Amino acid sequence: MGSGFLWWSCPNALVKATYFVRHNSKHSCKHHGTCWISGSKLYIRRCRVFVQRKESSRATCVATTTTSQETEQGNCSVLIIGSGVTGSTAAFQLAEAGIDVLVAEKNEKVGGNVISKNAQGFIWEEGPNTFQPTPDILTMVEKLNLSDNLVLADAKLPRYVFFGNKLHKIPSSPLEACNFSLLSTRGKLRAFLGAIGFAPMNLERKEETVKQFVTRHLGEEVYERLVDPFISGVYAGDPAKLSMKAAFKRVQALEEKGVTQSLVEGALLRMLESKKKTVKKETKMKVPRGSLGSFREGLQMYPLSVQSKLSEKVKVGWKLIKLEKNETASDGTHRSSGYKATFETPNQSHKVIYTRAVIFTSPAYITASLLRPFIPAASELLDQIYYPCVFSVSLAYPSSSFRFPLSGFGHLIPRSTKIRTLGTIWSSSLFPYRVPEGYELLSSYIGGAQDVDITSMSEEQVVKQVDSDIRKILLKEDSAFLPKVLGVRRWEKAIPQYEVGHLQRIETIQKQVNEALPGVFLGGNYLSGISFGDCVSFGMQLADRVSTYLQENIEMYSKSVVSKA
Ligand SMILES: Cc1cc2nc3c(=O)[nH]c(=O)nc-3n(C[C@H](O)[C@H](O)[C@H](O)COP(=O)(O)OP(=O)(O)OC[C@H]3O[C@@H](n4cnc5c(N)ncnc54)[C@H](O)[C@@H]3O)c2cc1C
Ligand SMILES: C=CC1=C(C)c2cc3[nH]c(cc4nc(cc5[nH]c(cc1n2)c(C)c5CCC(=O)O)C(CCC(=O)O)=C4C)c(C)c3C=C
Description:
The chain has 17 helices and 25 strands. The longest helix is centred in the last third of the chain and has 33 residues, at 532-564. The two termini are 24 Å apart.
């Protein structure tokens, strides 16, 4: 690149000087430590950022500063609120790109919804149980050196629906679907007719609910016995309120393309969804199609491994309580140069962080409260996203108390059966190493959007209800054994519901954030799709978008300094 000067001007109000860095020379300042040029890049050691060097032009430090008098303050280039799957993924990707990132998590442990527990020889999950190993997840698993800890449940384990006092195996192929005992002959015929195109059109072209879409295409029976329980096992939701377009965009898109017969390939919308998610990108790791993944010690290994890699850059027990614009520039003028974030921290003291960009991965209702001063209308919309209450109940029973040897993923229960539990994952069948010899572990879920009264139940009442439902379905009638209660978790606001109007709402929110809050990015399962894999992919995309924003922002700021000079 030859010799020459690079002018480095720090935008922070506390730094008054513009620094000149000569090629191959080193320069120190008390705020940023050493900086130097190598090749085409300017490196600034303390800020751990580098700025693409432009010959004879100015570069800008993307970090703000701490001074020795302000011990409760700090700085970073990107602040991430929340250490769930989305936040952890974005943080790792940004750190890997050399960007100075700070993750603030209000809980004492990282992971958000992902909570894995280990006691008395059992390992169990209180949030998500498994993920579909998408290419993005596998990429992250490799990067985090988690490959040796990846565990896969047998792809062939059947899923069941409990209906008419019997467990019915859900077919895994169109052939199996012909002998499918869950649907009557009439129900199958109706579904078949819908599949070959004899379905009424959506003439009004209004946004349809899942219930409307499914009954129109496949009939009432498929809806009641198959899709309603499936919705319980993904959204804990109410299909009469969820938007087909938002909750299952791939399936809806098929209709728009006129591929109606694919809708019931195997009579299962869910299967269709997962097939569309087949691996496109190449990763070194190969996993059998249809298998479901986790990690040896549970899903929480994922955020924990990000935390161990980012070390001090992940702050637990830090709750964001206020965000302000940091608008004073070094020359005394006002402009948006980033944000000031105030946190409550474990020792009750407040901490302040100055940052260029903020990624919010907190749930919609929390993000709403933090952004309300800037975007009141969008915050109202964020607040409208409904999260029902769900309990997860992990119980262990002796293997001998079961009616048959457990082999399957688990069972789901249609709401029309009047059994209160939504469904049960047969955890010890998925991962047998997670239980002591002679025991079975069951993870059940109860509550959701169709059972709002659950909020008034105590943990003891919930355990009693779940135990009684399990007895009706899986245990021998004379089994007097009381279960080992491993864990009961009340998810007061469990899962965002993609109700009718969701996509429109999201679009409006995004627009208002982009206009009013440059450098603020929204993430989280109310935007990305709710699966673990959706959150990983969205976290990766967020990291790319934020890197681009920082680069563009630096260039814009450099230009404004040049023109003032
Ligand atoms: C019971 C249950 C079962 C599920 N089962 C499955 C499954 O089997 N498979 C699957 O793929 N998906 C499943 N999911 C969905 C999936 O787990 C979630 O969608 C995903 O984990 C959400 O990740 P996230 O990072 O977007 O949000 P979250 O996990 O909600 O993370 C947000 C984080 O922000 C933090 N935070 C909030 N406010 C603040 C603040 N003011 N300051 C600092 N931090 C803050 C929170 O503490 C939290 O850690 C399940 C979800 C639930 C609840
Ligand atoms: C068979 C029993 C199941 C129960 C009970 C259950 C509860 C439950 N699940 C979620 C949220 C999600 N589950 C997801 C995947 C998933 N869930 C089950 C089964 C049960 N879930 C299976 C077999 C799978 C794997 C995917 C599949 O092959 O169908 C997902 C991810 C969905 C995706 O798009 O990948 C979510 C999200 C909740 C909230 C819940 C509690 C009621």
